[in-house]
Amino acid sequence: MAEHDAGEKTEAATPKRKQDARKKGQVVRSKEWVTATIMIGGALFMMLFGGHVGREMERITRDVIRSAGEGIDTPRLMLATLSEAGLDATLALLPFMLGLFAISLFAPIVVGGATFSTEAMMPKWSRLSPASGFKRMFGVQALVELLKAIGKFFIVAGVAALTLWTFFDEFLTLGRGDVHATISGGMFLLMQTFLLISISLLLIVAIDLPYQIWHYAKELRMSKQEVKDEYKEMEGKPEVKGRIRRLQRELAQRRMMEEIPKADVVITNPTHFAVALKYDAERPGAPRVVAKGADLIALQIRRVAEAHQVYVVEAPPLARALYHSTELDREIPEGLFLAVAQVLAYVYSIRKYGRAATKPLPTEFPIPDEMKF
């Protein structure tokens, strides 16, 4: 029973699993979303550039007909005319084509993000297997695609019928005007109908997109054993362990530096060690170590203390004893109570009376032999 539970894919995909899937080109994709956005964008571009394209095509047609009458016996002239007409037609359609290209490029990125995978372009021989082919044809995914196709048919047919019924009178009056009015009116009605049909596809997108997100998450699910194996693999890599330790050190050092401005005194070696102490008279307990370090960290502690006007006291034997016998964010040991009390009394006296009225700091401190370094 336990083995069955371990093999069942009940766990959400880990960040590494998602990253590996993205490297293989496996991201959330919705063909219905891409189709709908391209069709809606195409309809909008037709309404925006349709008039310009129509006028350009009319001009090009007239130029071709006029040139054909003048140079029908000259193949070279006819070829040049057709080439020029093709170039003009391409330039007229260029804004429309570029707009559709941009939509087709960025529409998938909106859903699944940008990704490029050479592995996804490699041929997969498993797709040539008849068994795999039948599984795809008669599987759940094929059923979903069939239902979407049927849904699209009924939605598009319904919207088209409703549009034709709504604009029925306008369609009937098209033949009563002149040629230009009939063409312009017919194109306008056609573009409106196409836009409404394209917008109706968003109903399919509203169903398909959540399903694709759910299906993608389901495909990437992991068993509990796979999660454990991945964790062990990640933890076993030396570079990962080193990075974790480095981040932990940086985080601890950052927090430590933030506590220095709250300290009462920093006791130094003066160059090799520095220990910052904080004493709260309103709370029971001994002074607490808020920061400590050696060499470069000691220098940084002194700089932060001086920048925030925290007293820095040079007491080499006491600094060495504090550094080697204390833990960060812990109270000092009992054997150093008297020595630290002398330093704090000296600091409090300076704060109250100034250095001129304060007795010099003792040169020797009562430090137990087992704490002397």
TrEMBL record:
Main localization, broad class: membrane
Biased composition regions of type Basic residues, renumbered to the chain: 15-25
Membrane topology category: Multi-pass membrane protein
Amino acid composition bias (Basic and acidic residues), ranges on this chain: 1-11
Gene Ontology BP terms: bacterial-type flagellum assembly; protein secretion
Keyword check for Transcription regulation: no
Region Disordered, annotated ranges: 1-25
Signal peptide: none
NCBIfam families for the chain: flhB
Protein name, as recorded: Flagellar biosynthetic protein FlhB
